Amino acid sequence: MTTTLTHLIQHPLVCEPSEATDDHIISYNPATGEPIAAVRKQTTEEYNAQVERSNAVFKEWRMLPAPKRGELVRRIGNAFREYEQPLGELVSMECGKILAEGIGEVVECIDIADFAVGLSRQLYGLTIASERPRHQMIEQWQPLGTIGIISAFNFPVAVWAWNSMLAAVCGDTMVWKPSDITPLTAIAMTNVAHEVMRNQDIFTPEHGDPCDVFGLIIGTVEAVGEPMIADRRLPLISATGSCRMGKRVGEVVGGRLGRSLLELGGNNAIIIMEDADLDMVIRGTLFGAVGTAGQRCTSTRRLLCHESVVDKVVDGLLNAYKQVNIGNPLEDGTLMGPLINEVAVENMRSSIEQATSEGCEILCGGVEGIERFADTPGNYVEPTIVRVPKGASMPEVVKEETFAPILYVFTIETLDEALEMHNEVDQGLSSAIFTNSMRNAGRFLSPEGSDCGIANVNIGTSGAEIGGAFGGEKDTGGGRESGSDSWKAYMRRQTCTSNWSADMPLAQGIEFG
Ligand code: UN1
Q1: For residue 256, is it within any domain?
Q2: d(CA 339, CA 25)
Q3: How many angstroms separate the alpha carbon of residue 481 from the centre of ligand 1?
């Protein structure tokens, strides 16, 4: 580990793996199976204390003018720039994505910080025409409070940044519970933010510590996760992860009438029409299905391919898959790193077995592609293409999101049929069509087209830019993070009516007393 990396993860909770006890989480490098470091699990008491501190500092943070908060976010974004390479390496080392993608994730953090800085001068409200004379109505946005952020292993830094950079300019403070598989990246990001917050003189609260704007808590679901979702001190819980986890969060937060922002699983498809540019199809699908070893919520899981091109697409993909270098994600030339852990490998294996038992054909990878790495340290697998027999109904296995590089290929005859299959799954995150026909593209983007939160034309399903709102419908949870007006989720809307007349007229013309 370089000295910068060691510096980035320096923290009272972190120790050598050899010093770990039952109270520690060990962070493993999924590429080698070697432990990187151990992190002490925090207790419910420590969680409570963090929320108290973040609540306390909120009282003053909310009163700092938004552009000043933006200035601090600008400095944090610049610090991300300074540490782009080592942070990217750490992401790659802890969650197994290739270095280019690890750095790409840090770039997402920088981009959203820039976006948030601009936003800090644009938290616009409305003026509304009042029905009463000499009255003024406005709608304004107020900070919400301390928000809870729960993030997943697969985007261990970007998802936090989408939430935290926006929440910070909106005047909120936060408590972040990262995935317990990737605690080190969370510590590194928080260290970078805290270094900036410690060395500034823009925000010097009378009570509390500026670092608690960006609170972090590392612990188990029982000690931290459950108390967090039930905690009335957190008006918003923004959670990213599986549909199962999201249902629990939605239920508990809803039960206390809190707000939740859920960004859950996807089951993303690409429709390929007969007039598609097949070179582009292959490139878009390769990145979508094999990138991040199929562990993005936007990963391409299904291809709905017109019967006239399906064989060509399959051949092209088989050819492209052969050239995928699988190996250490930090090495040049590697295109696919390992899965996150052994459980993920076993999940992939059982999905492949189920697909076979449901009558599908494995075209490459498969169980053999997993066995090939049986004696290699690290959680490596081969990306797998599964062909679903034409005319068969959607196999059950396809309806579930398996977080692994499995791509199911379906044959379709018409766009109607494709759209029906496309929208048949429970999830609704990302979607794409490849076509050169305006009509097909237009229909895909129409109300009777894709039912997803993200719908692309001649671009794959993954790799969204931060400027757009990110999230999806149905079991994906309905939340929107990142760009566009997603910031509104982190604020409370206030309708204000001021009377500057000398009368007291009532709305709806009511005469009273
Ligand atoms: C996720 O997998 O949770 O659009 C987020 C993408 C990335 C973010 C994915 N920008 O693929």
Answers
A1: yes
A2: 19
A3: 11
Residue span of the structural domain in which 148 resides: 43-264+477-494
What are the residue numbers of the active site?
263, 297
Ligand 1 lining (C-beta closer than 6 Å): 108, 154-155, 159, 240, 296-298, 462-464
Q: What are phi and psi of 22, to 5 degrees?
A: -65, -20
Same domain, 307 and 218: no
> Residues 35-74, buried b or exposed e (16+ Cβ, 10 A)?
ebbbbbbbebebbeebbebbbbbbebbbebebeebbbbbb
Residue 136 and residue 85 in contact, taking contact as beta carbons nearer than 8 Å: no
Q: Same domain, yes or no, for 62 and 200?
A: yes
pLDDT digits (tens, 9 = 90+) for 151-161: 999 999 999 99
* Any domain includes 513: no
* 198 shares a domain with 84: yes
pTM of the model: 0.97
Residues 119 and 240 in one domain: yes
Task: Count the Cβ atoms, other than its own, within 10 Å of residue 232.
Answer: 8
Q: pLDDT tens digit string along 208-264?
A: 999 999 999 999 999 999 999 999 999 999 999 999 999 999 999 999 999 999 999
- Choosing from 108, 181, 296, 454 the residue with most ligand 1 atoms within 8 A of its CB, the one to mutate for a pocket test is 296
- pLDDT higher than 90, residue 1: no
- pLDDT per residue over 262-298, tens digit each? 999 999 999 999 999 999 999 999 999 999 999 999 9
- Residue 446 sits in the same domain as residue 483: no
User: Is residue 427 a part of any domain in this protein?
Assistant: yes
Q: Which amino acid is at 468?
A: G
